[in-house]
Amino acid sequence: MTKKSFPLRLLGLIHLKNSVVHHRAVAVDSTAKIRVQVKEFGKHLRGTTVTILAEIWDESGELAFTDESVYLSKEAPASNNRKNDTSTSDKSKDREQRPDPRDGFTLIGIWRLPAETGRSYAKASGDANPIHLSNATAKIFGMKGAIAHGMYCASRALTQATRDPAAPCSWSVEFGSPVFLPTKIGIWRDLDRGTRSEVVLRGIGQKNRKNFDFSWRGPESRPDQD
To answer: In this structure, are residues 33 and 27 in contact, taking their beta carbons and an 8 Å threshold?
Structure first.
């Protein structure tokens, strides 16, 4: 994605979703092989998407981790973009018809995210995308203000879903409304689908906007064992 041949501008890309299979833990002091490739490009109502496949292989040569990440470039035009003639009344009607994201879920916690959340996670992860660092840098790329990293929310949801994030599992996350900083996010759980080996969480922010959907499946119900 950092090569000159990559057709989308890296800075300002918006993280849409991830699908992860964690086969086995990789020790911190071990040698791992990481392979990353562009899987495909796609069309989106707001631009163009790219799916990145990342794989981690441990010292024994066994596949330890796979991740498919989908990103959106709002600068790249898509042939199926909606026309900009949607009226304000139509937009308001669409909002009114949206289902309440809290339906079927139970509140289990509150996250309080200060303004420096994006900068702190950037230092830990190395992901210094300007849309996460400050309001000024985020606005350059069309955002209303700085937003939290998607993987910050995903990793925090993972630690809430399981006591052992390093254990074999699969999980996925799909991001909705941006998490503008600072803010509070309510963490809701779907108890109907909740079991010892499956957890479904939803992050809901201000004005009851859905920020993300997160699902975790333990080794007893991993997709490759169904």
So the answer is: no
Judge whether residue 86 has pLDDT over 60: no
Look-up: residue for tokens 């799909």? 174
DSSP characters over the chain: --STT-SS-STT-EEEEEEEEE-S---TTS--EEEEEEEEEEEETTEEEEEEEEEEE-TTS-EEEEEEEEEEESSS--TTPPPTT--HHHHHHHHHHSPPTTTT-EEEEEEEE-TTHHHHHHHHH----GGGT-HHHHHHTT-SS-B--HHHHHHHHHHHH-S-TTSSEEEEEEE-S--BSSEEEEEEE-STT-BTTEEEEEEE-GGG-EEEEEEEE-GGG-GGG-
CA distances from 165 to 24, 42, 132 (A): 11, 31, 25
Over the stretch 158-177, which tens digit does the pLDDT of each residue have? Answer: 999 998 888 999 999 999 99
186 with 133: CB under 8 angstroms? no
pLDDT value of residue 2: 84
pLDDT score recorded for residue 224: 47
State how far the Cα of 49 lies from the Cα of 203, in Å rounded to an integer. Answer: 23
